[in-house]
Amino acid sequence: MSDLLDEIEAEQSLPARYFGLSWKRLSLFSLIVIFSGIYIGIILFGENSLQVLLNLEEYQNFLAEEVSSLKVENASLQKELFELNELDPDNN
């Protein structure tokens, strides 16, 4: 019985013995894992990455606050301008 097991074990390739896969399937699985890792790395750290999106959203919030403050400042300056125009006698 042990001769039979030794013979079967000798016939199996290294990936078949340890992973239960043939060389072709092991290499295909390895390529899929490698390309998936590269793709996820590009998504997380690339030019169009999640970090860039978060930075752009933060910048958008900053610009929205800046617009609001500039609108308030503009309104006060317009009020001051209208008051100064009413006081100017040459403007009548």
**Whole-number tally of structural domains:** 2
The helix-and-strand class reads: mainly alpha
Proportion in helices: over 70%
Strand content: under 5%
* Oligomer type: single chain
Spans with pLDDT under 50 lasting ≥5 residues? none
| Count of β-strands | 0
Rg from alpha-carbon coordinates = 36 Å
The coarse silhouette is rod-shaped
N-C termini distance:
118 Å
Q: What string gives the helices and strands in order?
A: HHHH
Count of runs of 4 or more consecutive helical residues: 4
Mean pLDDT: 81
* Main β sheet profile: none
Would you kindly provide a written description of the structure presented here, covering whatever features stand out?
By secondary structure, the chain is mainly α. It folds into two domains: 1-45, no CATH class; 47-92. Helices cover 83% and strands 0% of the residues. It is built from four helices and no strands. It has helices at residues 2-11, 14-18, 23-45, 50-87. The longest helix has 38 residues, at 50-87. The model has no long low-confidence stretch (mean pLDDT 81).
Concise account of the structure shown:
This protein is mainly α and 92 residues long. The longest helix has 38 residues, at 50-87.
Task: Break the fold down into its secondary structure elements and pairings.
Layout lengths: L1 H10 L2 H5 L4 H23 L4 H38 L5
